[in-house]
Amino acid sequence: MTNGNVKGTANRWQVPLAVGPEHANRHPTTSDLAEELPAAVHVTSFTYEHGPIPVADITLDLRQFGDSLELEPDNLTGITVCDTCAPLAPEADGLPELIEGIVPVVSAFRSGPGDGPVSVAVGGADGHLSATVATAMHRRMGRHVRVTVEHLKPKPAAKPVCTESARDTAPRSPVPDEAQRMMDRCAAYICTDRRPYNERKARYQVASDRLHRGGFCDRDILLDLGAGGTELDYCLRTEHRWRGRYVPVDGWIDGTDLETWTPPRDADWFAALEILEHLQNPGRLIEMMKRAGRGFVLTTPNADVVDVLAMDSDHVHAVTRDQLQAWGLHTTVHTFYGTPDDGLCGLWTREPTR
């Protein structure tokens, strides 16, 4: 194990920096160092499928490590000799090395021109795993600088991540019956058996490429309609190193019905991957997405090649390339589902693309 310093940056680790503002929905704790020292590193844990992704200097996506791993922070840091600890599950291989490896990365960020704490976001499919890893990072880096850590509460939480507070026990407004039915329906659909990400990533890679061809950048806000497991965000951040603001919109999150949806806020870009075929009136959604500040991207099965309605019992509309072009989209043909040219990608931009 290293001492956490990178050559040439040891002194920087001892320079306290300013604390950022607290978020009302977070439950912060402090490191073991003196509380009067400003924080140099701020770690936030979150769950990908239960809320927006926090903006951070460094984002760690732990979804590849699986769900509900029963770990303790000391299993991952080597701070104590744990003779009685059970061996790590195979899915957790690499987590201790990841935590150790993040130390020089954070140190490099602290050596940069920024004048605030380095922010690290740790996200997973399971709130327990991301909170455990965030706590382990807190202990590991807290040997050298003051570190603060906070856990965003998943909604609903699969496991308790934060201690109960008066806010948690306060009466909540009931969810309207119609919205609850939509949430239940979408939750059931998203839980159906699906091919793993690596077998489906072509559509996300194509959409990411189209976005960047349209001028997509780190300053942009992207609303992902029918976001599902937020795979598009994963692709953008891991393959394109995108650092913008991603906002998932999906019926299983809040009961959103895309048949009647209207943009609740300004956004630079919209994405609607594998959505049009689920809508009775896809043209309405197209017009709503044209309110984007810069443009939108979509994917859908190619009705000229495959039987769209037979692909999925939830499909109710077959979209052709000619129809997308009639709506004003620049359209390309791709292979998404195993048959050559079985998928379409459409891009609409407010300004001409290069």
Would you give an account of this structure?
The protein is an alpha/beta fold. The protein has two domains: 11-169, no CATH class; 177-349, Vaccinia Virus protein VP39 (Rossmann fold, 3-Layer(aba) Sandwich). Helices cover 29% and strands 18% of the residues. It contains eleven helices and eleven strands. It has helices spanning 73-77, 95-110, 127-141, 166-169, 177-190, 197-213, 231-239, 251-254, 282-289, 308-311, 321-326; strands spanning 26-30, 41-47, 58-61, 118-124, 147-152, 221-225, 245-249, 269-273, 295-301, 330-334, 343-349. Helix 2 packs across helix 3 (127-141) and helix 6 crosses helix 7 (231-239). The chain is elongated. 39% of the residues are buried. Mean pLDDT is 75; it is low at 1-37, 78-88 and 156-173.
